Task: structure prediction
Amino acid sequence: MAKAKKEKLSDKLFYKQKNCWDEINKKAEKEVEEIASSYKKFLDTGKTERECIDVICDLLEKNGFKNIDNISIDQEPVHKILKPGMKVYQNIRCKSVIAAVIGKKPAAEGFNILGAHIDSPRLDLKQKPLYEDSELALFDTHYYGGIKKYQWTTIPLSMHGVFINEAGKKTTVKIGEDPGDPVFTVTDLLPHLAKDQMDKKAAMVVEGEDLDILAGSRPYADKDEKDRVKLYVLDLLNRKYGITEKDFTSAEIEFVPAFKASDVGFDRSLIGAYGQDDRCCAWPAIQALLSLARIDAKNAEVKSIPAKTAVCYLSDKEETGSAGNTGARSLNMQNFLGLLHGGTEADLRLSLSRSSMLSADVNAAFDPTYQGVFDKKNAPYIGRGIVLEKYTGSGGKYGASDANAEYCAKIQAIMNRNKVQWQCGELGRVDKGGGGTIALYAANLGIDVLDCGVPVLSMHSPFEVISKVDLYMTYRGYIAFLKDA
Ligand code: MN
Ligand code: MN
Result:
């Protein structure tokens, strides 16, 4: 007969984190695969902020969310029409979205907000990008967000974006994603001739101005013409999209890695893909919102209406500091919540100060190859669940909104009540660098806000890696927050 195991004091007093794979059952494993597979599809169809918004607005419409701009055109103010369980959203310039499920409690009691971003580091075309040199056509770029420039050479790139003509007509471009499409690339020097290059500091190995994209090499047939390779490219673009060189000056054209999201590892426990910062939080955030007040298969009955109004805000421009009229420093979120609230500006401010938010963003997972930059005790680990990050910032917590202890404990309690496995995490060793999120802009409004998301390996690289089980715990954590905060 087995002896009853005596509980050790250390088991009672020490804080230990467990690997989520050891803790989940067969049913949960199935759910892990389900969210992973919908997420990979999202990554492949949403490679830019505009494409993400297209996918998400489509999804919101299919799930019964109404565009608030269409409602407000009708006579009555929006807040008078809203009832618990109703679902509304706003598409902000095709690059950001805010969606809400109206709760049972009045807006005056505050909102529960999930805020993630859907822009990712990439190469943007300059305004006069196309040139010819040595019978090669090349695009001049200005990189967007924090990248290690050398990582963006010698990989297949795809072209995404919009041209807008003077009449306002929008032409959408996506080349390099469909089977059989051509792709593009930034060339790099062969090792044989790279003696001087290899002696340079990594930041200078490939310089920003040299991230030029190879776009063609075939001359236009008419030999009386100049720059015939450039001309051939423009002729093709003109035939297909009706554009001329001038149209690049107003366009937004982004180049991103052309490869698709894949499972990584023999055990398929990981996902490798471009743009996971921050789509690995944006996707579970929007899915968490959709899980509330979901319309069932019979297209009937609205279920699980949240107590407080649940909001999901997906912002643009986080990777360049959240400026701009689609970024989180704009008044977009306040404007939207003001419509739901319907009171005076002072009323809205009071309601914001009673609101809770998770700044849904990624953290750097501990990487055994680069142990030196992490504090092993305080780094988040792949496979240990959603990361609760009390503060971000750098060197002396500079720029961190630093969530207060009361709020951290409240969120931990929500996770524990709902059996969501979580870990705490800090971005790297003290004074090794740092970074920020949109949390501080919410904190400025008096909102209680905590950074909370998925740990990532190779963050900001063309091929970032996350764990499926962390994605799953994050999804469940976001649902728990919206229902319970
Ligand atoms: Mn991020
Ligand atoms: Mn980032």
Notes: Residues 277, 319, 460 surround manganese (II) ion (ligand 2) (CB under 6 Å). The chain has a mean pLDDT of 95.
